[in-house]
DNA sequence: GGTGCCGGGAA
DNA sequence: TTCCCGGCACC
């Protein structure tokens, strides 16, 4: 488990560094007007530096992403992941354009659907064997980096992130017999059941002889939950929900 | 009898 | 809010 997390952790940190730079650099830029921004291509083997983000994006798009200059369809800001801003101490304050370009990376920031690996909240808190996640789970900050569901799909680094997203969940269970409990943007069956019950005027009827009505209150999932996977002796490895005898948050259907 | 988890209570 | 558990449905 440890190595799994570690590998992914490195990815995450790399990723976060790259994106956080944009944010951390930004305030400086506003205060120190004599700093000049340059844009350096970070694509492996390429260190081209340009004056404007437009040109670096163009460069990345054409030279590394294989797109044409007018190929906007697959350039949802993904060029940004191949260049970085660097500051040059020059007395030149005419950087408005570049500021406009860089200060708002494709802010299509949409809350990634709540479910994409909604990290176990217990992971975010204290789980000792998932401390890495606690520190680097890209909860809100992650999405504030301008990562969007759309940009999620293409750029390689986003793919890394994706792989982390899913691997983070695969990582915990010691058994390999399980399909990864990847969460997608849909409610769990129980949530759906509850929603349905809440919305249905007959919601209270399910408790009346469910066997005769054929409506089962809680069709049991075939997914093995923490209790079954880890066993009672490894209760500390259960997700918090299971520890609390709540609906498992780690192994959802 | 084991499992999953709702409902509710204690801290 | 976090944590825990009684109790019930399901298997």
Automatic annotation (TrEMBL):
Biological process annotations from GO: regulation of transcription by RNA polymerase II
The organism's place on the tree of life at top rank: Eukaryota
Keyword Metal-binding: yes
Compositional bias segments (type: Polar residues): 153-178
Keywords associated with the record: DNA-binding, Metal-binding, Nucleus, Transcription, Transcription regulation, Zinc, Zinc-finger
The keyword Nucleotide-binding is assigned to this record: no
Record localization: Nucleus
Gene Ontology MF terms: DNA-binding transcription factor activity; RNA polymerase II cis-regulatory region sequence-specific DNA binding; zinc ion binding
GO cellular component: nucleus
InterPro entries: CR1/CR2-DNA-binding_regulator
Region annotated Disordered, chain positions: 153-221
Protein's UniProt name: Zinc finger protein 704
Native source organism of the sequence: Magallana gigas
Phylogenetic lineage: Eukaryota, Metazoa, Spiralia, Lophotrochozoa, Mollusca
């Amino acid at each position: 488990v440890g190595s799994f997390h570690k590998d992914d952790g490195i990815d995450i940190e790399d990723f976060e560094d790259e994106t956080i730079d944009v944010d951390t650099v930004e305030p400086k830029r506003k205060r120190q007007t004599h700093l000049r921004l340059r844009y350096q291509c970070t694509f492996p083997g390429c260190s081209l530096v340009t004056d404007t983000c437009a040109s670096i994006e163009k460069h990345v798009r054409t030279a590394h992403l294989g797109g044409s200059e007018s190929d906007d369809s697959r350039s949802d800001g993904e060029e940004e992941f191949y260049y970085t801003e660097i500051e040059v101490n020059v007395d030149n304050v005419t950087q408005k354009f570049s500021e406009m370009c860089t200060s708002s990376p494709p802010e299509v920031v949409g809350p990634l659907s709540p479910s994409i690996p909604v990290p176990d909240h217990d992971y975010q808190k204290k789980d000792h064997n998932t401390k890495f996640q606690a520190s680097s789970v890209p909860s809100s900050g992650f999405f504030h980096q301008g990562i969007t569901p759309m940009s999620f799909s293409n750029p390689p680094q986003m793919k890394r992130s994706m792989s982390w997203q899913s691997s983070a969940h695969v990582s915990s269970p010691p058994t390999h017999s399980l399909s990864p409990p990847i969460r997608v943007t849909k409610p769990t069956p129980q949530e759906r059941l509850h929603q349905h019950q809440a919305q249905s005027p007959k919601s209270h009827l399910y408790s009346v002889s469910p066997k005769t009505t054929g409506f089962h209150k809680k069709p049991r999932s075939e997914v093995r939950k923490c209790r079954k996977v880890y066993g009672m002796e490894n209760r500390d490895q259960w997700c918090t929900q299971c520890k609390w005898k709540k609906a498992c948050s780690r192994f959802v259907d």
